[in-house]
Amino acid sequence: SRIIFGSCNSQHQEQRLWPSIIARNASAFIWGGDAVYADSKRFGKELAATPEIAAESYQTLLNNSGYQELIEQNKTIVGVWDDHDFGVNNGDRTYEHKQAAADLFVKFLQESNKNIQATHKKYSWPLMEQRAKKNKGVYSVVVFDFEREGDPLLTDEEAGIDPEVNEGEVKPLSNKSVAIFLLDVRYNKTPWIKGYQHFAGDYEGDFLGEEQWQWFEQGLSRSTARVNLVVTGLQVHADRWFDGKLVEDWSRYPLAQHRLYQNLLRPDVNAPILVSGDVHMAEYLRRDCKRPIDITLKRQQEGEEDVERIEKQVSPIQSLVEVTTSGMTHSWGTFNCPWSGNSYACNSKYVQMMTATAMHIAHINHAWRNLIDMLEPKQEGAKRRVQYSLDLNFGEFEFDWEQEQVTVRIWGEDQNLNKKEGNQKPSRPHLSNTWEFARLSAGKELSFTSTGKLADEDFTKRYETMLAAAFKVGAPKSFAVSEDDWICLPNQGTMPPYVKVIGPLSALTISGCIFYLTPIMAPVLLILTLYRRWYPRKHKLD
Fold first, then answer.
1. Which of 136, 202, 280, 430 lies in disulfide reach of 410, CB 3.0 to 4.6 Å?
2. What end-to-end distance do the CA atoms of the chain give, in Å?
3. Distance CA 494, CA 453 (A)
4. Maximum pairwise Cα distance, the chain
5. Are 171 and 159 in contact (CB under 8 A)?
6. CA separation for the pair 510, 517 (Å, rounded)
7. Angle at 181 between CA 178 and CA 328, to 5 degrees
């Protein structure tokens, strides 16, 4: 059973990944945001999309021969949006065309399923369409049951998860089921705050809005799916920069991020995995989580003799993993300009090499400590150690129901598709990890191995910071922080705030020195070399 994810797909650029996506023969394709780039740039100025431009952008994608071939396969196509298909870079609830944009997004998904929509009303995404028309946003949940023969997609009534159409007793799903929660992080998003305050994070900021939060929390509590995927256009674990206006992620709104973690780590939520896009690269990320109350209990009992009883009372570290797949037409390692144009930065191979080098350095200098560092032997010939790829990519979730595990792969353009028939072996994935369902679920016996880089004091300190900030802003009960909550930290350890600045800047500085000083120093070194050879010879003749 396979499901494909992809994001950051510009209708202005060549779309080379569709043959590779179709070749994987998945049951569904899920958009992770930025299916099109409806907004634009002119002379460096960002321009928001009008509904007419957005409609034209979607139609350009629908007319693409590769995407048309995917549609003809009669696969389920659904997903979330992010800022560029929303219509404005880093967009939020203040966007004047947001309701029109929501209607267009739902219409685009309906057109993408047009071949099977006529006989199956579920492919028209009725609940998402209703929310768009009621000015709520474009969130939804889709459920696949691979135990069913034929079409695995369930209707909302069959799935029994969406609280707007299901009440009362929870419906049991099979052990071969996947629930995919599609969250809208744009329609109700709080605008980024201005001024120096944004450096500390906005503890009053929110991505979903209270109505969507209530829907998500109730739906997640109703889910009996064996695996629960939560798709959000923005990265959840990442914490790369202080200013959300430059680099967006959930860490800029700490209490909203904290609330999301509490829901995912409930003991009744089976195998939660976060899926995100936005950043034009692929990454596997992980946060390790503890509850302050368990740390307190452990300290109180350290002097007792019954060690076995104490260890049973203290919960182990629970981990949350996130899969980021972004960059179907442009990425940091290839061509990183979504819009067509003649800017020097977009067309210069030299600039592209410099930015790619900077991103490689930023990933390996340990400033971004949420990344998974895989010490085990590489899997399926994929990359070992820090789990990231800067190439064009899409993600694949393959579920092994007998072994109760999921293999997550990041694929690029399959070069073997262009070779002679007879070579049936696919190219190696960029990344590949396998995770057991039980290991992903809070409250189970299995857990990820701790890196040993997090101490109890790190969790306690973070809890005290969150508690004080929530009290200061007068956070409502739904965003409150308590000692029973899970505190989630980067699996590679915490870092001082200045490292968040020094890490990326050091990467830019090193790559800048390499690529800017080399053209200057090369002629100088050549002249000095020639002079050293010429001067002794001339002096000897004199």
1. 430
2. 83
3. 8
4. 104
5. yes
6. 10
7. 90
| Confidence grade of residue 343 (pLDDT, cut at 50, 70, 90) | confident
Q: With CA atoms as reference, report the closest residue to 74 among 147, 22, 10, 138.
A: 22
Q: CA 153, CA 146: separation in Å to the nearest integer?
A: 8
Say if CB 373 and CB 425 are below 8 A apart: no
Contact 339, 37 (CB under 8 A): yes
Q: Which two tokens stand for residue 367?
A: 């400033």
pLDDT digits (tens, 9 = 90+) for 456-512: 889 999 999 999 999 888 989 889 899 899 999 999 988 877 777 777 777 777 776
Q: Which distant-in-sequence residues (6+ apart) come within 8 Å of 122 by Cβ?
A: 153, 154, 155, 156
Identity of the residue numbered 389: S
Tell me the three-class secondary structure of 203-264, residue by residue.
CCCCCCCHHHHHHHHHHHHHCCCCEEEEEECCCCCCCCCCCCCCCCCHHHCHHHHHHHHHHH
Neighbours of 316 (CB within 10 A): 17
Phi and psi torsions of 179, nearest 5°: -100, 130
Strand order in the sheet with 28-32: 76-80, 28-32, 2-6, 394-400, 405-411, 431-436
d(CA 32, CA 82) in angstroms, rounded, equals 8
Q: At 9, list the tokens.
A: 């797909």
Interstrand relation of 282-290 and 28-32 (parallel, antiparallel or unpaired): unpaired
Amino acid code (one letter) for 53: I
Encoded amino acid at 277, one letter:
G
Q: Answer for the pair 229, 180: CB distance below 8 angstroms, yes or no.
A: yes
Q: What's the CA gap between 146 and 517, in Å, rounded?
A: 57
Interatomic CA distance for residues 161 and 143, integer angstroms:
9
The token duo for 277 is: 């896009």
Q: Enter the tokens of residue 414.
A: 């399959």
**Cβ proximity of 228 and 272 under 8 Å:** yes
Whole-number Å distance between alpha carbons of 338 and 493:
34
Neighbours of 408 (CB within 10 A): 22
Q: How confident is the model at residue 308 (pLDDT cuts 50, 70, 90)?
A: very low
As a three-state string, the secondary structure of 173-185 is CCCCEEEEEECCC
Other C-beta atoms within 10 Å of 511: how many? Answer: 20
Check: pTM over 0.85? Answer yes or no. Answer: yes
Identify the pLDDT of residue 403.
95
CA 69 to CA 73: how far, in whole Å? 7
What SS3 class is residue 314? coil
Nearest to 433 by CA among 448, 443, 423: 448
pLDDT tens for each residue of 99-143:
999 999 999 999 999 988 766 778 889 999 999 999 999 999 999
pLDDT in tens, 42-93: 767 889 999 999 999 999 999 999 999 999 998 999 999 999 999 999 999 9
- For residue 40, give the H/E element and its range: strand 40-42
Six token digits for residue 163: 């609280």
Q: How far is CA 361 from CA 159, 284, 390, 497, 512, in A?
A: 45, 17, 12, 19, 12
Distance, CA of 168 to CA of 171 (rounded, Å): 9
